Amino acid sequence: MDYYTTLGVAKNASDKELKQAYKKASMQHHPDRGGDEAKFKQINEAYSTLKDPHKRGMYDHQQTAGQGGFGFNQQQPNNPFGGTPFEHMFGQGFGRQRHTPRNKDITVQADISLVDVLTGKDLIIQHHLSNGTIQTVNVDVPQGAKHGDTIQYEGLGDVGHPKYPRGNLHVRIKVSKNRTWQREQDNLFTKKSVNVFDLLLGCVIIITTLDNKQLEMKIPRGTKPGVKFSIPGYGLPNMQTRQRGVLFVELETEIPVINDTAILNKIQQIKNEIN
Questions:
Q1: How far is CA 154 from CA 126, 164, 245, 268, in A?
Q2: Region 88-98 average pLDDT
Q3: Is 90 exceeded by the pLDDT of residue 114?
Q4: Which of 86, 156, 190, 193 could bridge across to 254 with cysteines, CB 3.0–4.6 Å?
Q5: Cα 208 from Cα 245, distance rounded (Å)
Q6: Which homologous superfamily does the CATH classification assign to the domain defined by 100-177?
Q7: What pLDDT was estimated at residue 215?
């Protein structure tokens, strides 16, 4: 199922165009108005994915990679009653859902690093089916994937009952923690220790980025500890736009160990002169 075709919009449709198309299609195909329930569910599934920039980026990536059957387990967090916005507009009739029997879905975990988020990752995942066979699946994790994202492959779930179609396979992304880098959306945060004298006098430091590039950063004279410097374009890629976020570097004070009495006396003298 192509989500854009389902809603009748172009792939570059704006948020406003998506919303208008969703409302029109929902009204037309709502079961309580004599519409097709299966079609109505497809419309809601399509809109739930495309209205979210991150999920839309995941979907577009998967479609470009040529792997069909992609989707998300959808919920409606903004609707306190559950279901879709149109469910309560037409009353409780929509709540009666008729499900076609199928075999169980399977959920597996894909472990990736923060570097994999930056570059994207091709994985081979193997898991057991209920009939004892081992299924091998090639998983294409896109750049910018987030911890907890789920990639769905239709028809690659369990095979249990021979009369029912296979369930779906859900690949849940787990991004391992990194001691050096912290992530907030598409931005990266790190800390850099700088000698206290370099903070006083000014200096140039080298920052090694997540993708191992060496960047020179000029520290002005008199910079205080805790100051954050920003470097645009060296964060993580956005799922939809592919543009990289900002790298933030927080300076920490590095106090040197000085055992030379003469040097300590000079430091004391300078301190007295300043005060």
A1: 16, 14, 32, 72
A2: 44
A3: yes
A4: 193
A5: 16
A6: Urease metallochaperone UreE, N-terminal domain (2.60.260.20)
A7: 93
Please check the confidence at residue 68 and state whether its pLDDT lies above 60.
no
For helices 15-29 and 37-50, give the axis angle rounded to 10 degrees. Answer: 170
Q: How does the average pLDDT of the chain come out, rounded?
A: 80
Q: Topology of 1-97 in CATH?
A: Helix Hairpins (1.10.287)
> Which distant-in-sequence residues (6+ apart) come within 8 Å of 63 by Cβ?
2, 70
Number of H helices, E strands in the chain: 7, 11
187-196 per-residue burial string, b: 16 or more CB within 10 A, e: under 16:
bbbbebebee
From the number of C-beta atoms within 10 Å of its C-beta (0-12, 13-18, 19+), residue 103 rates as buried
- Per CATH, 1-97 and 100-177 having the same topology is answered no
Tens-place pLDDT, residues 7-64: 888 888 888 888 888 888 888 888 777 788 888 888 888 888 888 777 777 777 766 6
Domain regions of the chain by residue span: 1-97, 100-177, 182-274
Report the alpha-carbon distance of residue 166 to residue 99 in Å, rounded. 14
Q: CB of 86 within 8 A of CB of 41?
A: no
Q: Give yes or no for residue 129 having a pLDDT over 80.
A: yes
Residue whose tokens read 């849940």:
172
**Cβ atoms of residues 126 and 134 within 8 Å:** yes
DSSP 33: G
Average pLDDT estimate for 228-237 = 93
> Residue 163 and residue 139: Cα distance in Å, rounded?
28
SS3 47: helix
* Dihedral (CA of 61, 4, 81, 100) sign: negative
Length of the chain (residues) = 275
132: CB partners within 8 A, 6+ apart? none
